[in-house]
Amino acid sequence: MSASASTAFAKYDAASDAARAASSASPSASASSTGGSRVLANATVLLSDAYKRCNPSFGYTPAINPRRQLTKPSKPCGNDGHDNENQDLIISVNDVLAADDGSSPAFVVTDVLGSGTFGQVVRCREKGGAGVSAAVKVIKNHPAYFHQAHVEIGILHMLNQECDQRDENHIVRMLSHFVHRSHLCIVFEVLNINLYELLRQNKFKGLAIGLVRVFVSQLLDALRVLRLANVIHCDLKPENILIKNIETAEIKLIDFGSACFQNRTVYQYIQSRFYRSPEVVLGSPYGMPIDVWSLGCVAAELFLGLPLFPGASEYNLLTRMCETLGPPPSSMLASAANAHKFFKKNESTGGGATATGGLSAAIGGGGDSYELYTLDEYEQKSGKKVAMGKRYFKHTLLNDVVHGARMSSSASEEAQMKERADRASLLDLLHGLLELDPKTRWTPDQAKAHPFVRDAPFAGPGSFVPPPPEEVCVAKEVQAAREQAAARAAASVTKRGPAAAATAAAAAEPEPEPEPAAEEPRTPERATAAPAATSGGLAAALAASSSGSDPAAAQIQAQIQAQAAFLQQQQQQQAAAMAAQQAASFSAGSFTGTPGSYGSSMSNFSQYGMSPHAMNSAALHPLHFGQVRSIHWSPYDRVRVVNAVP
Question: What is the C-alpha separation between 263 and 265, in angstroms, rounded?
């Protein structure tokens, strides 16, 4: 419960006690001491007592109050009337969420915080005791989502209990989990608004560069822990970064529903498109560097106020990357399974390169060269019209975009010189985070040593040489033990509520046929490229740790693959629907402003009830903990944060 709400309830209780004390006193004493307050109390907080004095047979309990329903639609449709047609639990204010077996504390629902394809998130207070507030993520009553949530539980259990026991590295804390009426519920700490909401409240003008530094430093700490734990987040974006403390600007990384282990990558259709790495687009094997790429996109957006790569399709996204950063190296394209979809290959003729220029310039030297298909060539090859995203910046190259962002005209000359120096330092950091080749992209530790993050003087481009990439010094036995512990934590959900999974499976409707996607679905990597492991994620670790050649393990593996295919299909359909909505409302090139000069073009976002990033998300998880508060941080003044997190 928030401080303001606690204060209000305390005042209410004090008024009730005072009124009851006054009513129990003699009429003359109460009239002289409280005056008209007794009449007011009897007509408000003591109204039920007044009715009972008038009519002794009158009875009232708070349980008969009408309850505001939080789930839409709220018409019962399955699971003994507890679920709606979307297999979401129908939740109302003051409902109690508790484990079916009574093994965990009960939580009283106070409000809804967000919803998505996974289910819904509600704000609760623990029943009895101190009434501690919590955010409860209620998963849909479907076996695919039910088991996918096992992955999130297992990985968060490992991160919280094994890798970040002292809660120092900005990873959301999972408090508990239980099964309620066949719905898996995950209990989290309550946080505040997310960074996209912060940008929106700041009218998409971007944040002060000092505040960007504070946020980036904390995210690097979180990614460092993930790297040591061999975990890939797979969906790092502003919506999944929540503010914990307004005063210190402390943040937390949330939503590990798409996460996986480095050696157990399952999906190919991952990451929200604006933050999708080039190796994922090109179908190359991916790993922990994809989170560093997403961090680079987030850091640029926090400073600029707008997405750096707002691609409306994968071709459009790849085109923007090449325009802003240059083309990928030929060695990367040669081993990429999907390179042939976007690039045409020119066989080596003695090292000569074609002279088409621009984006279609040949990539490569003495070996084979590659040319990016033009828009007409790509549409003719793919047989479909390509969605083209908006252009938010008048410049194209990253250097020009960063230095061309609006600067406060009222700042002194000294402040402007400091701002330009900070921008140069930020730009150098972005080049390291947004390296197209994942093999040379900086690690979190390398980026943490950069002068921008340390708020140290920056000597100029090329002056910072990152230290050699550090080896992940975690013994294989330790890592295997961690993965098995995570698997056991996930398995405990089923053990505590075996009937829940069976009920969910029985209630599941047949899977719908996939609709035409707005962009080509991800495909498994070819045998010619080094394939990413597809051995079943966390559940596979559970199967592998159970009984080796046990037929049950093979059955679990087959079940997981089927669930993965279902989730993949759902994500593609969601992305297709959102892309179609976006194409209907936003025309390419219709926005020509600079950061801070939006006019009315941004008002279109509100009609969807979500961010422009969520409309292009591969896996929609708008998990907004905490109530939205109005925050006024000037984007161009030097940030002044007391006791800021280093």
Answer: 6
